[in-house]
Amino acid sequence: MDQTLNVSVLLVVACCVVLWGLLSARLERWQITAPIAFVFLGLVVTHGPVVLVHLRLHSSTIRSLAEITLALVLFADASRVNARALGGDLGIPVRLLGIGLPLTIGAGAVLAFGLFSSSGIWVAATIGAIVAPTDAALGATIISDERVPSRVRRILNVESGLNDGIATPFVNLFLAGALATEAINSSGVSKAAVDLIGGAALGAGSGLVGALLLALAMRSGWSADGFRPLVVFALAVVAYSVAVVLDVNGFVAAFVAGLAFGTVLGTHEEELRGFTEETGTLLSLLVWFSFGAVMLEPGLAAATWRDLVFAILALTVVRMVPVAIALAGSGFDRATVAFIGWFGPRGLASVVFGLLAVDSLAQAEAKVVLGVVVVTVALSVLAHGISSSPLAGRYGAHADSLRRERPEHHVTPRLSVRKLKVGHRPLERAPRRRRSS
Question: 216: how many CB neighbours lie within 10 A of its CB?
């Protein structure tokens, strides 16, 4: 019976992927991105007039799928960021991650406590940490849109890639507080620090060693061309898996491993990571399908007007004000600050953290977290998906009107982008051939 059910799910998901592949270009011209489409498809096949498959919210398979997907996306995105090239432009990402992210978590926690005070301060803090990190995959549309200055796109790429991992210890810490009757002591804070530092150290080591070994094998002619991309994919899985086994931050490990890998191999790794990117893209579609299938309906059923208020404020004020504070004195134009502040989509990381919280908390608190996360992520997928291309065009035109010496136009190395984009409308269309008369 279970085997039949699994094959049925596989068949339905495969048909959805085929359908999207056939219609994607047309749908993206209507601002229907891949996440929007797969959330809708996941909802329809499980809650539509004809229910094709049955999936459960509390499923270890779905949670594991979401976690490994996030790890692959983090590795792939980080591998595009050459640390040596980034060194001269590290100040802005550090501001966003060191000032903006903590302020966003704090503001989200305060807002959540004001709206859901009956759940307690620790649940409110958990909510604030869950919805704080931005999504590297959902931001791919902006990061790959060449109408936006390359420096702005690089800043968004680095921020969205790293903040998932930085937010993880906060989520773990606050979730532990929500599960305990007493407050967190200093040992809990120390564990969170070890979690972050250990993941970064492990990721740096695995990425560095993996890149050096692959470079040696390539120079020596030991590795076949067709199998080299599999090395990159496996390295991302190794970095994440070893970190989880050693009980440190797997998401930080995956990102730092990708950063080290891309820095060592430089331009050579661009042709190697295609399989990892495409696999991460496919798994991302499955996560969005699962979100629509198992989280959207119960989340919306549990939601109230408070969840909608929280979601609107979380995507605007709670994100944009901390970004403005973090970028104060940077010299960026107001439109640039607003653009960076708005394009902080919530997605894969929030889904993963939300699943962790729902599986861990008591039923009443889990219901609150589920409602908040579902409404915030669903609104973000819709709002950021629809607005990405039009706002990129408007902001790009504004940025072009700024003087070349403005910080937006500081020269940065070429930004490597996804070969297979998630929810991206083509930037340029090939010219139509004239029909012969």
Answer: 11
Structure tokens at 256: 């730092």
And the tokens for 251? Answer: 């998401």
Residue 53 lies in a domain: no
Question: What DSSP string runs through 17-76?
Answer: HHHHHHHHHHHHHTT--HHHHHHHHHHHHHHSSS------SS-HHHHHHHHHHHHHHHHH
Q: In total, how many domains does the chain have? A: 1
Q: Judge whether 41 lies within some domain.
A: no
Query: For the segment 168-227, what is each residue's pLDDT rounded down to a tens digit?
Result: 778 878 887 887 744 445 555 566 667 778 888 999 999 999 889 988 988 888 888 878
- pTM score, two decimals? 0.80
Long-range contacts of 391-394 (CB under 8 A, 24+ apart): 391/339, 391/342, 391/343, 392/141, 392/142, 392/145, 392/147, 392/148, 393/147
- Domain range for residue 400? 61-409
Contact 346, 128 (CB under 8 A): no
| Rounded Cα–Cα distance for residues 65 and 237 (Å) | 12
Residue 55 is assigned to a structural domain of this protein: no
In a domain, 348, yes or no: yes
Give 257-270 pLDDT, tens digit per residue. 988 888 887 655 56
Please list, in sequence order, all residues whose beta carbon lies within 8 angstroms of the beta carbon of residue 181, skipping any fewer than 6 positions away.
Answer: none
